[in-house]
Amino acid sequence: MTIFAVSEEKNRWLRERMAELGLREEDMEERFVRSSGAGGQHVNKTATCVWLRHRPTGLEVKCMAERSQSLNRFLARRELAEKLAAFNGLPTTKDDKADKLRRQKARRKRKATTKYAKPDIDRDTQDNQEKP
After folding, report:
1. Residue 6 vs residues 18, 37, 50, 76, 104: alpha-carbon distances, Å
2. CA distance 65 to 76
3. Residue 60 in 3-state DSSP?
4. Which of 27, 70, 81, 97 fits as disulfide partner to 5, beta carbons 3.0 to 4.6 Å?
5. What span, in angstroms and rounded, lies between the C-alpha atoms of 84 and 59?
6. Quick one: which of 91, 99, 24, 98 has its CA closest to 14?
7. Is 18 helix (H, G, I), strand (E, B) or coil?
8. In angstroms, what is the C-alpha Rg of the chain?
């Protein structure tokens, strides 16, 4: 597998993720096209956009997030791996983030209900109100 312009840890993570999903380099069709958007003259002169297609499933990914082709290749493979995991019904990082947010909101709601709950009326004030 190619080494991309990211840290060794991220390269290792991508290799492991692709291996556990059964995603092989031979199964991918890769093309480079010109990007659009911010980047100015550099983007207009070089083909930094990466288009990947996974032949067995037909899933396609197009990545033009960065000005670097190597970084876009890494990001495209990561995105394709996530799409393939979702396609196979496996948990994805997007699902993990959604679960974390759901737990965080539930915890905040519990805290708020206890903090702003209406207090019970004191028995002393009830006794004083009953005696005219």
Report:
1. 16, 23, 16, 13, 31
2. 9
3. strand
4. 70
5. 8
6. 24
7. helix
8. 26
Question: Three-class SS of residue 29?
Answer: strand
Instruction: For residues 76 and 89, give the distance between their C-alpha atoms in angstroms, rounded to a whole number.
Output: 20
CA pseudo-torsion sign 26, 28, 32, 38: negative
9-50 pLDDT per residue, tens:
988 999 999 999 999 999 999 999 988 877 777 777 888 899
| DSSP summary character for residue 57 | T
Q: What is the DSSP letter of 36?
A: -
- Tokens 């991220």 identify what position? 10
First to last CA, the chain: 87
Identify the residue whose tokens are 């019904």: 89
Give residue 70's Cα distance to chain centre.
20
Helix or strand (DSSP H, E) at 42? helix 41-45
Q: What percent of the chain has pLDDT over 90?
A: 45
- CA neighbor of 51 nearest in space, from 75, 83, 84: 75
Whether 40 and 11 have beta carbons less than 8 Å apart is answered as: no
